[in-house]
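Q: What would this chain look like folded?
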Amino acid sequence: MNVLSVASEVFPLIKTGGLADVAGALPAALKPHGIRMRTLLPGYPAVMAKIGETTRLGGFDTLFGYPAALLAAEHEGLDLLVLDAPALFDRPGGPYLDPQGLDHPDNFRRFAALSLAAAEIARGVLPEWTPDLVHCHDWQSALAPVYMQHGGAAHVPTVLTIHNIAFRGQFPASTFPELALPWGAFSVQGVEYYGDVSFLKGGLMAATAITTVSPSYAQEILTPEFGMGLQGVLANRIADLHGIVNGIDTDVWNPAADPHIVSPYAAATLKKRPANRDALRERFGLVATDGPLFCVVSRLTDQKGMDVLAGVIDMIVDNGGTLAVLGSGDPALEAAFRTAAAVHPGRVGIVVGYDEPLSHLMQAGADAILVPSRFEPCGLTQLYGLRYGCVPVVARTGGLADTIIDANEAAVAANVATGFLFSPVSEESLRLALRRVFSLWRQPKIWARLQARGMKSDVSWDMSATRYAALYAGLLAKG
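A: My prediction, written as structure tokens:
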């Protein structure tokens, strides 16, 4: 089976969040199922610099007014198709934001081009390789099923995965004439969304099947609280909606062979782990205390519950804890954590930005990772935490609730607990959870069992890849 995966970011080439990790890991996970997955992504400067030798397979004289080429490349086991369109993608800044942190003003055109290129590949623009199925990720590629419907590739099944429904790819109606779609597509049955254009909404209407990244999130997005105005669309597609929890690349995230940590270890050799804690303390300027070292690896936004966490830092410090924060986002929240670091020198440290190697050291060195998200489609940092014996403390929502077993009295006694769950997302609720964390931390044997149980959790792609393979096969069988 040949599958075209279409994503705006793919680890290890370009990453702003968990979407890249999923798009980077899924091809290898599906290979044992007889699925050859090629990944189409934009030719950002960072991508072009890393991929090395390429082969030009074809191109477009004009793609939304600009020349573009389709390049084949291989990188760290990934079979890539790179959309090389310098006028659209060769620019400073990140995939979505300019150097000032503002959206690129032509994002609608840039990712419509990615989607249209995918549709053309499905239609047969590359004679030597045509996909049996197209798998799109999030709004940036969600127009591909729409273009396929209107461009001679409606017979090719499509899967659209929602990684975060809050990002809908919403643009003014004035952009529609530039999208190279028939006027009939600007309708309730198409891309129209409350008078605007929504790439994600169009994809949800057109895709053969819809997946999201955890069973709980699949239920949550059917409600007004989490559906972001698309719950009605999803309710009408409920027979085609599947919640499949993400896995992680257990080769990349392997504490026994991680090049980014100081002292490799496994569940049976947890005594080697403290050397990583020492290195982490040194990196963040933290002192040794008799309490747990907490970490955060996150976007610093209200969605991630970072405002709630900022409100309980004093409680963490008062109970002997320390806190290391890696992330960026809302300037006010960045300032709040910087202020906390200044008020509590040696007890709170922050690195603003993203640093992949440092995130590995944080999982290997911290005692617990805090994920107080107001909503979390799947979440990956808690899975990394399980893998590394960094006990997750998470909100009871979405994929967090699906992947963590709460350390209540019964679960601890049965030796099945893997972390701490709390709800609602409030300072009071988080404080109650932290009190439970401090209590079990002071019982080293129980804490070690909690770590070991988490490290034995199956966080790989094995089960999820089996479900995706079955979904693909079912769609192809329907013809």
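The chain has a mean pLDDT of 97.
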